[in-house]
Amino acid sequence: MSLLTDLDTRGLALQQLDEAMGQVVDGKVVGRHHFAVYSGDIVLGLDPRTGLQVPQNPLVYETPVVTNLIVDVGKQAYLDRLGGMPIGSPIVAFAAIGVGTDSTAAAAGQTKLNPTVTGSVLLQTVDATYPSRSAFVATWKSTFGTAVANFTWNEAGIFNGTVNGTSTMFNRVIIGPFAKTSAVSIAYTTTITQS
Q1: FRET label pair with 169: which of 27, 48, 73, 92, CA 20 to 30 Å apart?
Q2: Are the CB atoms for 102 and 156 separated by under 8 Å?
Q3: Residue 1 lies in a domain
Q4: Positions of E strands within 82-170
Q5: What is the pLDDT of residues 145-194, one digit of tens each?
Q6: Cis link prior to 64 (omega < 30° from 0)?
């Protein structure tokens, strides 16, 4: 956890995050997850050092970067997309991030968030311009504003829709616990790296 209040420190933290999220392990597909919690609804402003739009709100909490498990249905979807299968069926983009309350360890056979308990879940589409790709790294980002996902976050994943249990889950990660309230917004970022 870190408290960052000035832009120079925030810029350094973002650079360190970029470096950490770009690491590759043993030539495999690796997913990395991270979220930053900001006071109130996120207001963007120009960082004079980088020329990028960055949150101007006080950063109140930041998670370490954690790796995920690509679940079996995610691996199958990856291969289906690679081969354009099933032939004639529309290919649905993985363009949603979901969060939920279950802290059960990720397992290959899971197909949804909250796989073992009844709890809160929200799947929402990613922010404009995401997902994006640069070389061998694809990035997803979703901003959860003050009015949504106000429950204890323990898990997350990437999905091809916004209905838990119906949409295909690509990966699952244990991220919490973090008790999100209407006092904060969360910018959730996840990357998938292929080496």
Answers
A1: 27
A2: no
A3: no
A4: 96-100, 121-125, 132-134, 137-144, 152-159
A5: 999 999 999 999 999 999 999 999 999 999 879 999 999 999 999 988 88
A6: no
pLDDT digits (tens, 9 = 90+) for 1-33: 332 333 333 444 444 444 444 444 444 556 778
Identify whether 2 is part of a domain.
no
Torsion of CA 70, 75, 81, 84, to 10 degrees: 180
Is residue 117 included in any domain, yes or no?
A: yes
Residue 51 placed within a domain: yes
In which residue are the tokens 């969060």 written? 99
Contact 47, 15 (CB under 8 A): no
Range of the structural domain that residue 109 is part of? 7-193
Mention every residue, 6+ apart, whose C-beta is less than 8 A from residue 106. Answer: 68, 69, 71, 155, 172, 173, 174
Largest interatomic CA distance in the chain: 52
